[in-house]
Amino acid sequence: MSNALQHHRVSVAERAAEAVALVAERLADPEVVAEVAGRPDNHDPLFGATMWGPMTLSTGLPGTASFYAELARISPRWSATTHRHLKAAGAAMPSQPSRGLHAGPASLLAAAQGCGDHYPGLRRRLADWLADDQLARLARLRPEVGQGISWESYDLINGLSGTARLLLDAADDPAENSAEVERALTETLAHLVALSVPITVDGHVVPGWWVPVELQPVEQDRLDYPRGDFNLGLAHGIPGPVMILALALERGHEVPGHREALVRMVEWLIRWISVDDQGTYWPCRVGFDDEIADTPTESLFTRTAWCYGAPGVAAAVYQAGRTLDNPAWRAHAVRAMHDALARDESRWTLAGPTVCHGYAGLLQIVHRIGSAEQDEVLLGARARLAETILDMADPDAPFVFRHPMRYPRSAPGPTEFKLLDVAGILEGSAGVACALLSVIPPALLGDAVAPGTHRAWDRALGLC
């Protein structure tokens, strides 16, 4: 291999094209990917979980299949590889499938939907399964609304917003649509509207998406938020429902109270724009006491990532502003992105090249908002962010890009991170390569863009 990944005289687009091609080569064989990513020593250093989930978008085969589907749109020669990964994912389907967008049948549907008009029978079966499962989850989770909700009730990763995003595409596709798909989508939108209605807790009126202490997902959260909290992250917070409600409305799917719910959610997010010594930002999470305080809370923790912080929130606020034709909301989103990029990079709290809390997720949001707004600052930042990602490439690593996982603070040694070999979209090399496509002219990767229906890979991130 040449040294183009490191050679600064080569254009960023050419370096990115070479990196994407190398990732495509390394991930091509599903059996090899499973062997490498599933090694016993390739595990989360905090919790011990393996970094290979074969039926997940985050670390597994639906994620790699989504990457190859994106390449196949550019050059049909990748269609056979896409098929291999989809077939392997289907074979890995457990008898008791997981729920949520990023795991189980829903993740396979997300990958298959990215393949244009191919696999209509598979897509129909998976859409039917998802609609039935969504309705069952709604029946179980609907009683939470009005008295505090769990993340599953609304978030993008494991909750009802992420799967609603797939139902939205299914409802608009004759090959996937059915009465049950329509019903599941409509009832989910109504559910998201309902949780936007304010509730009274301990004598205080607060947003209906309050997560009480007993529904916090992990013990540390119960300690950090003894009176519950309000999540502002795109991955697990209210920006997820904002994005889904805005996209659905834009595409003609509207339920009673839809527009009012968007206004309540977005105005609350705008109220939580905070200021520190480096400009404006959005905090990751807001405790109950912070929400009801008379004076603004100082120095709440933030990132500059897709999952948490200004980029993810800005993406949702921007989409809502576009849907409801609210220039002020769009301006808030663009300003937040400008301020985020102007912050000292050491305070971005990003970890490595990957999507979830790394540079690739930030790059994709900069690309999305910058392209929609034709904003010179954001469009100009793409090359800088891509170059940072490319400087993290390691041609000797099995998948080219490695995912850093933080060690426990007490761990010995000179670093707090363990570099892991991960294949999928959220935490893996496939997601990094997908994000790098934003800076590559298609001609550098192969043929002309293939015709037909195309559903972009970052639907799984709630970005379109």
Explain what this protein looks like in three dimensions:
The protein is 47% helix and 6% strand. It is mostly helical and 464 residues long. It has a two-stranded antiparallel sheet with strand order 1-2. β4 and β5 form a beta hairpin. The radius of gyration is 21 Å and the shape is globular.
Brief descriptors of the model:
464 residues, mainly alpha, two-stranded antiparallel sheet, two-stranded antiparallel ribbon, 8 strands, globular, disordered N terminus
Query: How far is the first residue's CA from the last residue's CA?
Result: 35 Å
Residue-averaged pLDDT: 92
Largest sheet: 2 strands, antiparallel
Shape: globular
Helix content: 40-55%
Enumerate the strands of the largest sheet in spatial order, edge to edge or round the barrel.
Answer: 1-2
Number of helices, counting only DSSP H or I runs of 4 residues or more? 17
Got a strand count? 8
Q: Radius of gyration from the CA trace?
A: 21 Å
How are the SSEs placed, and which strands pair?
Blueprint: H1 12-26, H2 30-37, H3 61-74, H4 79-91, H5 104-113, H6 120-141, H7 160-171, H8 179-194, E1 199-201, E2 204-206, H9 219-224, E3 229-231, H10 239-250, H11 258-271, E4 274-276, E5 279-281, E6 285-287, H12 288-292, H13 310-323, H14 327-342, H15 359-373, H16 376-391, E7 403-406, E8 417-420, H17 429-436
Antiparallel strand pairs: 1-2, 3-6, 4-5, 7-8
Helix pairs in contact: 1-16, 1-17, 3-4, 3-5, 3-17, 5-6, 5-7, 6-7, 6-8, 7-8, 7-10, 8-11, 10-11, 10-13, 11-13, 13-14, 13-15, 15-16, 15-17
